[in-house]
Structures are given as C-alpha cells and as structure tokens.
Design goal:
- The protein has seven helices and no strands.
- With 229 residues, the protein is an all-alpha fold.
- The protein folds into two domains: 141 residues; 61 residues.
- Helix 6 runs antiparallel to helix 7.
C-alpha cells in the first residue's frame, strides 16, 4: 500500500497547493505557473498508463516478422541438408561462414524488433519528463528576485519588492513545494515504466528539483534570521 506513489493523493496535494496560492497571492504569476503544473499533473496518470500499456498491434507485427524470418532460415537449412553430399570441404566452409553471418544479422534484427516497443515508450516518457524539467526552471525563475534586500539601496533597475518577510517566506515555500511535486510527478513515469534511461532521467530531474529547493530554503533561513534579529 505504501510502496509506490499514489497518484490521486499526489494530485490532491497539487490541487490543495494551487488553492493555497490562489488565496494568498491571487494576482501573482506564480499562480499561473501552479495552474500549469496542476494541468500537467492531471494529465500524468493517463499518460503514464498509456505509455506502460502493451502495444498489441506492434507486438503482433513483430511476431509475424520474426516467424517469417525463422521460416526462411529453416528453409535454407533444409536446402543445405539436401545438397550437402555434393559439396566438398572447400565449398562447405564458405557456406557455413555465410550462414553464420546471416544468423548474426538475424539476431541483431530480432533484438532491434523486440526493443522497438520499449524505445517508443521511452521516447514518450522522456518527452513528458522534458516538460516537467522545463517547468522546474520556470518555477526557479519566479524565486530569483525574491529576497529581503534593504529597500534603501535600490537602483532604477532593481525589482519591485512589495512582500513582507512573512509573505516572502510563504511565496518561497510555495516554490519549494511546487518543485517537490514536480519531482514526484516525474517519479510516476519511472514507476510505470521500469526503463534504465527513463529512471536515469527521473533521477536527474529529482536531483535538479532538490538542488533548486535547497537554494530556496537558504533564502528562507536568511529571511527568518533577519526577522528575528
């Protein structure tokens, strides 16, 4: 029960976060980013299940192709057995070498065909993970200028800082939560498709979101220390 991510509860957490941001920062662009993340969240389960679902038509085509190839190889061996008595050693050795090369090529073709479905699924999963990775960077962009710098040293190009320390802490905390949920949505793809490349991409994305989140919490700690001093 607790050995895999529950998508429904993850999505409920995402919806709750969206509601919290809408209540505290109704006019912020962070709310629009959270809405986009919630939209991706609502699509994640269907995408992950569709990717993990067996591609029956493709499997049938691959099976028929392999069966036909095996039939041709058996036919070739039958022809060889029928005429082998008329061959001398000088003719048999080149023929065996040619058959060995054909078997190697056949093995490579079988591997290519049997891995075709996995590669199709992998490409779809990596495309979905790319969307989550891009959104993680967008979330990070929204916290870049959020700090408690002294307003007295602003320049003409300084960003506007209208949030109180408490509001700023909540804003940064929401960014951190969004990054964490982004990593959890990515993990759902690895959970449904145990592929080495997909798992590696998910781990890279979780490493990215954790790194960005640590940077945010460093800001939060500085703000809290400044407020208490």
């Amino acid at each position: 029960m607790y050995r895999e991510l529950n998508f429904k509860k993850t999505h409920q957490t995402m919806q709750c976060l969206l509601q919290r941001i809408s209540e505290r920062f109704p006019e912020s662009s962070l709310l629009n980013v959270c809405r986009e993340l919630e939209t991706l969240s609502s699509e994640t389960e269907a995408k992950a299940q569709k990717i993990a679902k067996p591609h029956i038509a493709l499997r049938i085509c691959i099976g028929i192709t392999i069966a036909l190839a095996i039939g041709l190889i058996i036919l070739s061996f039958n022809m060889l057995e029928f005429k082998v008595k008329s061959f001398g050693i000088n003719e048999i050795l080149p023929l065996l070498d040619a058959l060995l090369n054909e078997l190697i090529i056949f093995g490579a073709a079988v591997f290519f065909l049997t891995s075709l479905e996995t590669r199709f699924k992998r490409a779809k999963a990596l495309a979905a993970l790319h969307e989550l990775r891009a959104l993680a960077h967008v979330i990070d962009m929204h916290q870049l200028t959020k700090d408690n710098e002294d307003q007295g040293f602003n320049t003409a190009s300084s960003p506007r800082r209208t949030l109180t320390p408490h509001e700023l802490t909540r804003y940064l905390d929401y960014c951190s939560e969004m990054l964490s949920l982004t990593g959890k949505l990515a993990a759902i793809y690895a959970q449904n498709l145990p592929d080495a490349e997909v798992l590696s991409a998910v781990n890279d994305l979780e490493t990215l979101t954790n790194s960005l989140s640590r940077k945010i919490w460093q800001k939060i700690m500085i703000i809290k220390q400044s407020a208490s001093s």
